[in-house]
Amino acid sequence: MPSYNKKHGQTLMKCRSIFYAIAALSLCATSGAARDVSDSAGRNVDVPERVERVFAAGAPAAVAIVVLAPDKLLGWPVRLRDGSKPFLSPRLAALPELGRLTGRGDTANLEVVIASKPDVVVDYGTVAATYISLADRVQSQTSIPVVLVDGRFENTPASLRLLGKILGVEARAEAIARYAEETFALVDGILAKVASDKRPSVYLARAANGLETGIEGSINTEILERAGGRNVARREGGRAGLAQVSLEQVLTWNPEMIVTLNREFMVAARKDQAWSAVRAVREGKLVAAPDFPFGWIDGPPSLNRLIGLRWLVTLFFPEHAKLDMRAEARRFYKLFYDFELTDESFKTLFADTGLK
Prior knowledge:
The chain is α/β, with parallel strands linked by helices. The protein folds into two domains: 2-179, Nitrogenase molybdenum iron protein domain (Rossmann fold, 3-Layer(aba) Sandwich), CATH 3.40.50; 187-350, Rossmann fold. The protein is 44% helix and 12% strand. The protein has helices spanning 2-31, 59-68, 90-93, 110-115, 129-142, 156-167, 170-191, 222-226, 247-253, 263-271, 279-282, 305-316, 325-337, 343-350, and strands spanning 34-38, 44-48, 54-56, 120-125, 146-150, 201-205, 212-214, 230-231, 242-244, 257-260, 286-288. It has a four-stranded parallel β-sheet. α6 (156-167) packs antiparallel against α7 (170-191). The longest helix has 30 residues, at 2-31. It is globular and about 60 Å long. The N and C termini lie far apart (69 Å). Residues 1-31 have low confidence and may be disordered.
């Protein structure tokens, strides 16, 4: 019996190797001319002259592709929520779930990637040694080019122009990059009027119990900090990221504002005597971020956050930021998603957010 298992395993390995080899040869035969691009990690990658089919390595990459080149996206890293579908085109709403190559609990396997026949795999987010190693491994094993694009907020305009070049949609990328630059300039103008000690302390409440948050400097909370909020979850050595905290810790921080990604938590916290002891809850400054088709704060941390930045600066500094968020949302959804917001869609989008 052991010898049978060994031979069986060897047979499977040979079949898999043959599968990869055939797939790689097929890709090479159909990809045509290639061009060399340097991604955000400084890796030189040969991508096809024309990119028509894109595999998103994770949710942030999927959103970036939806904004820049929606017809090129092959599928979703995670299943699209039903509530998001009305805000996107029928084609995007019908795309399958392919799994993710990066992020917590990666679910895609290389067979799925190869079977999708992408011209390129795009990863948009943190550019670090772990992700570089993964990109190199996937590229080596599949012969499909993998590009890493820096997803840090501060690098958004440059990353958009890089991704636009890779996807062959430079004009579209330039329009979105200019919106990003305009947004950052708007926020900087407002923050210049507010002393640092006058800026609100803020807690980001994630998960159904509100006790998952992002440490200062993490990709999940950089939008709060960029909008002028003082993240109460300070970075005290070690790397930034998500963290589990206790209600006692939140009470100690006693933030002036709480922004949550979970509307169920917001409803529950407002009725909870323990949470009512927190200043933000007690003073009615616990708000839920709009989250369709993607979150305005996170979920995922990608281009969807640009409208969230405008909303947050209005929320934090209403005396200085006189933005009409309905008009802002209409402009953003048309430019980014080619979607016209209606009165009905506004009701869905703004429910329980404090926006009208």
